[in-house]
Amino acid sequence: MEDKEDLTDSDNNQTEPPVEENEDSDQNLEESPTMLKTRLHEAYSKQEDLQSKYLRTFADLENLKKRSIRDREEAIQRARLQLIEDLLPVIDAFKMGMIEATKFDPDGPIVNGFNMATNQLQNVLGEYGLVCIEETGGQFDPNIHEAIGHEESEEEDTVLKIIRIGYRLKDHLIRPASVIISQKRKDQASE
Q1: Which of 78, 80, 74, 122 is nearest to 98 (CA)?
Q2: Which pLDDT score is estimated for 31?
Q3: Is the pTM of this model over 0.70?
Q4: CATH of 41-128, one of 3.40.1350, 3.30.43, 1.10.287, 3.90.20
């Protein structure tokens, strides 16, 4: 029986490791919540930093898209304006040719051809926003008219004749209309 007891005692000693007090493990357990809080705080601040960088980058991208669209539209508008400015002398030449051709043969094929070409060109340019300034009888407007002469009349500052047609592209004045305006007649007695 002694042998059995010895055997049991030796088994007990072998299966249970000796318990030693470890000061480091107690200290790690005490610091562990503090370290976890610190790590959690660092993770949250890093997440906030990344989120703010993301939002700034997203806003910058949206601004870049808007700026790109605006720049593209402005470039198209500048190119359109330049093309129309280059075509104005051609339109003027067509109109002068039509006036001269009308003097000789008002219903002839040359006049009809000039008329069709001029109308087609003006219609196409009108679709892009070109507006002719060629009305007479209206009030002189220095924003769209350029007075190059005057004639005496009953009314003051009325457009009597258009010498050169003016043009504007939507709200942008390309060329003012060169006009002759009215000036009130001076009484012979006041001089």
Answers
A1: 122
A2: 62
A3: no
A4: 3.90.20
